[in-house]
Amino acid sequence: MVQKLGRLRESPSQTAGPYVHIGTNPNFIGINGVYAADLGSEPVPAAVKGERIVVTGHVIDGGGNLLKDALIEIWQADADGLYPGRGEHRGTADPAFTGWARQPVDGVTGLYRFETIKPGSAPYFDGRPMAPHITFWVVARGINIGLHTRLYFEDEETANAADPVLGRIEHRGRIPTLIATRSVESGVPTYTFDIHLQGEKETIFFDI
Amino acid sequence: MRNENSSYQDGAFFQRDRAWHPPAFTPDYKTSVLRSPRNALLSLGNTISEMTGPVFGHDMLGPLDNDLIRNFATTGDPIGPRTIVYGRVLDENARPVAGALVEFWQANAGGRYRHKKETYLAAIDPNFGGCGRTITDEEGRYWFRTIKPGAYPWPNGVNDWRPAHIHFSIFGHAFAQRLITQMYFEGDPMIWQCPIVQSIPSREAVETLVAALDREASLPMDTLAYKFDIVLRGRRSTMFENRKEGN
Questions:
Q1: Active site positions of B, annotated
Q2: How far is A183 from chain B (nearest CA, A)?
Q3: C-beta atoms of A12 and B116 within 8 A
Q4: For the domain that residue A153 is a member of, what is the CATH number?
């Protein structure tokens, strides 16, 4: 008889549902007094090195409707391209920076907004530099398993052209769905990144 | 204590079995129809962006964060079946995932959520908030105390009800392991009638989300216990990897 591999199966995903905020952002929906603040909503401390930016946008369904109940998490490197937290063995990232944040979209306008720093470049697994990017993870009612995507920056044209991940996208016409557009709002560089779940402008989502 | 930087934990993660997970488009769960991508996912081998993840320290936890019976109460205990939920967070290699942040949320005993967009006519419990969190110990263990949630009607089919469930959000050691799921209770007949449960293709996979009643762990004359183990993606040993320094 063949030996068994003895592995477990990953717990299957389920939707976060419409009331995800109860667990992740209780203060945002008026459940106060359990946690001092909603985890992931803290501002980036002044001690963190790097260029302050705002990342904002909407999440849009296949009918063109704005999601009002989505939750977004971001994960990114520090200004030098080092990741805070577990699994980074190339050096020590900026100790003041967590690299992770979480925001719900606004329940009325559907807008999300992160105040963060622009990440530096980190290497692809073969050592080539990846262009600066922010990993996005989107959950909501109607999304059975969290959707991973990446935000790249419009003003990193040269780095984007050499990015190994963008470089292997066969359908070149879809690459712009990963590129955030830049403007300056109240003196702060602001990148707009709309996430289209379905349809003509559908964002590229990754199986990581 | 286990060294989390040791070589067996440094490799790439096993790929997700997306035939085991629910697919994006499951039309019996109606909201998924317009919220599911139509294009194929783009396969991305793990890079450092996916193989790293945030760290949450035990110092962020308040003393009642894993006690939903007390963490919102003002005038007494909430009404409903007093329940302990406990288990371990493991990876696919059956190794404990230590230091994992586990968040959970749920309705009260009547199936009513404390959320401003919730309109179900069952009453709010003034002493029940419905949220909690904890961080696994060095053996991957977690536990919390709560009230068993009630079933809950929802506007999907004309007469659809969710089985009693508790939502779980789990952070492993890397963003590639990020997972949100739901826990169900052993013996609930509504598990097998629910379109959200049925978004999962196989009965075998659903059964891994059903917590077992554990009379031995229950407190006599006090609280029933349910055991719910969670499995996150496992990873290869670095000895199998062929990667340049730096990733």
A1: 113, 152, 162, 165, 167
A2: 26
A3: no
A4: 2.60.130.10
Helix/strand/coil for A156: coil
Closest alpha carbon to B43 in A198, A168, A83: A168
Instruction: Decide: pTM greater than 0.90.
Output: yes
A44 interfaces chain B, CB cutoff of 8 Å = no
What is the per-residue pLDDT across A142-153, written as a single tens digit (0 to 9) for each?
A: 999 999 999 999
Q: Is A125 inside any structural domain?
A: yes
| Nearest residue to A29 via CA among A93, A106, A86, A124 | A106
Residue A50 and residue A99 in contact, taking contact as beta carbons nearer than 8 Å: no
| Angle, vertex CA A20, rays to CA A14 and CA A22, nearest 5 | 140
Q: Are A202 and B37 in contact (CB under 8 A)?
A: yes
pLDDT in tens, B22-74: 999 999 999 999 999 999 999 998 999 999 999 999 999 999 999 999 999 99
Identify whether A5 is part of a domain.
Answer: no
Helical segments of chain A, H only: 20-24, 157-161, 164-167
CA neighbours within 13 Å on the CB side: how many for B233?
28
Asked whether residue A160 is assigned to any structural domain, the reply reads yes
Number of domains observed in the structure of chain A? 1
Range of A141's domain? 15-196
- Reduced to 3 states (helix: H, G, I; strand: E, B; else coil), residue A134 is strand
Check CB contact under 8 Å for B48 and A88.
yes
Classify the complex by whether its ipTM is higher than 0.95, answering yes or no: yes
Å from B84 to nearest chain A CA? Answer: 18
Instruction: Give the torsion through C-alpha atoms of A79, A81, A87, A88, to 10 deg.
Output: -90
Residue A204, phi then psi, degrees to nearest 5: -75, 125
Q: Is A128 on the interface with B (CB under 8 A)?
A: no
